[in-house]
């Protein structure tokens, strides 16, 4: 089987593909990165979102071999219980986490957005988060949480 | 750790903290103000969930697990003449195949309800007959999903096709094909069941003199409303895992709202004792009623039993749409009589509920069309006749709102039509007719779950305040008649009032267990099922409030049929009100034990002691012992015993939460498009135990209700096959679709609930459909009778109105 190598959460690691057409989500989950979730299998719900070379991808429809030589970030690379990432902190404080199944994908979409532009306007937030479906929250508190992260960034700039 | 600091951090709660009347109420009664409840403490599992820690069923699957794939029926109605699994069995890696020839044939229902269930036992694990496109034919367990898939394709089935029943009209016509002609099907309680007429259940009530009521009216109405299929679509599909433990018992880890019902149903279906089964509910990726059902658990359990291996089964999104449960489509014939002075003289509802191929929840959803709806307005003369009919279409189930959602579309549309006819402002018309605190309604006593209901008077009712605050927020004063509106884009404002219940009285039971640890922390074990709502957190808050400690001292665990006491599960808006009171009672009992030990330690009488912030003081002095010291004493020092209690709770009423919703829309007269400009939901849920989480329930339900009203639709081909089984074809709203959304919590105090609480999770989904229909009429003068209000349907309604 083919071996690929990529940076996962900043650390270079080798992975053996299960099959030539293995999807990135399956490869990640096989190796213990369970934070990316399977929700639809056709890239439309965003629960499997990870960041590849700075851009979000829906890993359930991304061939794993495409990650070869790339830089991949998953939710496992963001924050700890003692020191959460500011996006996680904001979502938790706002009461934006209900069942939580979509949240890792939402955190990563928000991170990709903020890495590109720390002070996006409201329309940009909506555009970046459009691919992450959530059935619990109505998005209200997710949106407010992200607006608060952005406001903080604006103050700092 | 400095507790004060931490609790400050935990109480960040940006959302509107309730400036609470509840707290005022507490003061009036001479009790201390709330310290933990009515505060937006952080949801206890939120942080680890936001970090993607392995928490859900699929995260827990061992590497050696077998994978299940199902052969689903391609036909809506057929007899399996022959089935040949020999080729499939030969495929290397296939470990087992289940079909009707090798499993017990035991009639049961898949609905997780009280026992015996008010649903027909019309389902078999596998059957010789298939009854909808997506019905089970055979299941394969193999070492990989790919091999299981190959084996499914290798199963040869010969079908004898039967004429399908694909609509309500088909189901009730003379000489319609009979869907459940098997003689084993029956209902376990005495309720009407006429499978030979495709009737799965019937329910109804009569009050006063309906016909006379119509005669006494100045205006009478006779209109038909219809709703369609919809699905909950939690982002986590149905998913289950089973393994055999060292005692040879079956452990089922599953995404369920009803672990205890699930255990009982699996035992029944597999014909094994309850003690052989343990059901564990880990974190759940959303449910909304869909997982109040045993859909996969019998299959993984059977495979685990037969193979000895762990067995994993997760539905694809397509399978979830086609095989998973749905919201029952219902057709309502509504008859009303109203006098010029605004008095409602008659209410008639004839409802036909399409329960699909199996009848689970059919009766109770129908019943709730009346019991959770009629009491909202005074009317003496009522005629209610409802039946659930079988069709060869997807199966209805429990879905947030549970019948009230469909019925409120009809009832609240009619309320506007009546107000319009008598020239009364719809707000004024509702205000003069709605039920108030201390009042009763005949529907409470008439309609129960497969039996009579429970007579009750309404306790707390903040509806008047909901109407007032909601009207102000939307700017009701700006509202003008549709007659003044012209042009392509027309704006309109609509509203509706709503109610629901809180638990099923005299039937549902919740229990809790609390034990104390050395550091003054407590294990709170509940059968109540947190499926993302935050019930672990609010139950922890209730326990902490009663024990006068902090939420950080509560270690909450739900749910595991081996570890946690019984609870019927997460449905019927029961967790806060029912399980919450069980928790409060348990905590009160534990507190008594704490006081007893403290009395011994301090050498005082219990009446001379008081608890303040997890310390027991000699009243009026500084002399005290801490909870930690009390626990150490009780465990190690003298007269040792475990400070621990279990309590159960059933309710004798089902106090309705009340709500008023307001919506402003913009209608596009050329395309039939409806754009939501602003949505306001004012809700009285009693004391909001956690205001941020209560708001979250409202926001989530409203957004779900908005797409249910506008875009969510099952599209069938001529064979009854759903043709849009993906998020690309079935449109649920994304962040970009979210309108401006304002939630107003209107506090009241429900005497019978824990710290004054009622339910909140279901009621808000009832609002968007009637609210939008009323706003659309206000914008255009066109009444929408059929939901969902997709562009094509609305456009046709507009064209139709031009012809009139």
Describe the structure.
The complex is a heterodimer of chains A (157) and B (804). Chain A is α+β, with helices and mostly antiparallel strands. Chain A folds into 2 domains: 3-76, Beta-grasp domain (Ubiquitin-like (UB roll)), CATH 3.10.20.30; 86-156, Orthogonal Bundle (DNA polymerase, domain 1), CATH 1.10.150. Chain A has helices spanning 24-30, 86-94, 103-116, 122-129, 140-156; strands at 3-8, 11-16, 49-52, 55-58, 71-73. The longest helix of chain A has 17 residues, at 140-156. Among the domains of chain B are: 233-323, 2-Layer Sandwich (Aldehyde Oxidoreductase, domain 4); 397-501 and 653-803, Aldehyde oxidase/xanthine dehydrogenase, molybdopterin binding domain (Aldehyde Oxidoreductase, domain 4, 2-Layer Sandwich), CATH 3.30.365.10; 509-650, 2-Layer Sandwich (Aldehyde Oxidoreductase, domain 4). Chain B has a 7-stranded mixed β-sheet with strand order 3-5-1-12-9-10-11. In chain B, strands 7-15-14-13-8 form a 5-stranded mixed β-sheet. Chain B has a 4-stranded mixed β-sheet with strand order 16-24-25-26, sandwiched between helices. Chain B starts with a helix and ends with a helix. Classes of the chains: A alpha+beta (157), B alpha+beta (804). At the A-B interface, helix 2, helix 3, helix 4 and helix 5 of A face helix 3 and helix 19 of B.
* Rg over CA atoms of chain B: 27 Å
Arithmetic mean of pLDDT of chain A: 97
CATH class of the largest domain in chain A: Alpha Beta
> Biggest β-sheet of chain B, characterized?
7 strands, mixed
Series of H and E elements of chain A: EEHEEEHHHH
Seen as an oligomer or otherwise, the chain set is heterodimer
> What fold name goes in the CATH topology slot of the largest domain in chain A?
Ubiquitin-like (UB roll)
How many separate domains make up the residues of chain A?
Answer: 2
The shape of chain A is globular
The amount of beta strand of chain B, in percent, is 15-25%
